[in-house]
Amino acid sequence: MNYQIRGNQMEEKKTIKINVTGETCPVPLVETRKAIRKAEAGDIIEIVGNHPPSKDEIPMAVESLGLELISVEQKDDKWKITIKIPGDADG
Predict the structure, then answer these.
(1) Which of 1, 5, 25, 65 is an active site residue?
(2) Residue 89 lies in a domain
(3) 26 in catalytic set
(4) What is the pTM of this model?
(5) Is 59 a domain residue?
């Protein structure tokens, strides 16, 4: 698993990237929840993986937590889920 946090000096928002490729349940969801706990309002979390059930489970968890699901993308055998932590000045 790889974590990357990117921030911009001009903006307080950051993007947290999680790579759970090769991991199976429950690891992708657990790692997503860890990132959510560390994130602040306005932050973006991108999760990349290839475990098909997690592609469905993570968006369900995002919805139940009241977070914003920005996108779910599939390319070949990998997927990318992008979520936003609500509460910034834009939203």
Answers:
(1) 25
(2) no
(3) no
(4) 0.83
(5) yes
